[in-house]
Amino acid sequence: MRHTVAESPTANTGAMDAWLQSRANVRERRGLTRRAGASGCEDAGTMLDLASNDYLGLSRDSRLTAAAVAAVEQFGSGARASRVVTGTLPAHEFLEEKLCTLTGAASALVFSSGYLANLGILGSLGGPGTLLILDAHVHASLLDAARLSRSPVVTVSHSDLEDVERALKSRSQPRAVVVVESLYSVLGDSANLMELAALCAMYDAWLLVDEAHGIGVAGSGRGAVHAAGLAGAPHVVVTATLSKALGAQGGAVLGSAALRDHLVNTARPFIFDTALAPASAAAAARAAQIIAAEPELATRLQDNAATLADLCGIGRSQGAVQSIPMATADDAVAAAARLRAAGVLVGCFRPPSVPDGVSRLRLTARADLTHGQMVHAARLIRAVLQEQPARNLEHGGMSRNGNNI
To answer: Which part of the chain is the Aminotransferase class I/classII large domain (predicted)?
Structure first.
């Protein structure tokens, strides 16, 4: 039987359109609507940016932009193919070399984003014979990777070593991967990497550490894994983003040469994705060189973070991001809007990015900001919070212990 196409290509989309509108209405009602329009560009030079992930201020460093321009002139604007076809360029190999030099890793493999690096590593290590043990507060990319890996998954209480050991000890699978972040940007705490690595060695498991918020920040910029003396440990795997402290774009998996070879042959986000653009690769490589040569950048970042936390009267986070808990998502959004009107951009964590009850303002203390800028920002933040409903003060804002929940 011959089937005819409806006269109007949109004639049968009414139900889907209605569903999309209903979901939009729910988000609006709950105060969860997000918009991806350009922001901040029109305010360049006038707004104090405490919202971005540019921890060391390298995204606008002339040395990175010069490296990016040179790469475009030499290799073109794109890699043109997957790394396993013709997409691997000298810029990618140079970046992997410099990442190893910075972190002490034996080998590195670059992906086109940190998200894809996490998908790639767990997809390649996972499967029915591998138990994934995830800390309750790991990033969404790791949660998605675990779901896609076809692995059995256990979620353990946040930073609970006993819970991790129970999961390792009782497993029936021949392989296991414990998945944590080195620094948790929402709660502001860090993983006990030495104890976790010891547990994994005892129970013949891998430890996967997401250093998205650690490299460039912890351990004189070389990362928390390096600071813990675990760089190059054969059972410790690191994932990283190149879009935060390194001021560029992309992601990487750092580990043994054997692991790199396994990823090249099995990681779908690597095999089936066009390689990272050469400009981003070159910029990230230059950033890795700068961070290794200038540990004072990480020191300046830590000093600014301590100043901001102290002047805002909040508990000090160990990372670049300082945060102030808010009672509700609406309160967080309102405070962020008032600060923007006052000339300060701050981040706003709220569901579904974080669980209910964890809404908070996100303050990034960058290395390229001055002490005076920290003082100015803290004064405005305190003034805005004092205008907020009293429940926020009870919930943790303006409290010495309010950064930990």
So the answer is: 47-379
- Reported CATH class of domain 62-293: alpha beta
Does pLDDT of 392 surpass 60?
no
**Residue 313 token pair:** 């009267």
Asked if 381 contacts 363 with a C-beta cutoff of 8 angstroms, the reply is: yes
Give the residue among 351, 364, 356 at the shortest CA–CA distance from 395: 356
Query: Whole-model pTM?
Result: 0.88
Asked whether the predicted pLDDT for residue 143 surpasses 80, the reply is yes
Question: For the chain, what percent of residues have pLDDT higher than 90?
Answer: 76
Distance CA 54, CA 368 (A): 9
What does the pLDDT read at residue 330?
85
296-395 falls under which CATH superfamily? Aspartate Aminotransferase, domain 1 (3.90.1150.10)
Domain with CATH 3.40.640.10 in the chain: 62-293
**Cβ contacts of residue 252 below 8 Å, gap of 6+?**
95, 96, 99, 108, 109, 110, 111, 114, 117, 239, 240, 242
Q: What is the pLDDT of residue 43?
A: 53
Domain with CATH 3.90.1150.10 in the chain: 296-395
Average pLDDT, the chain: 90
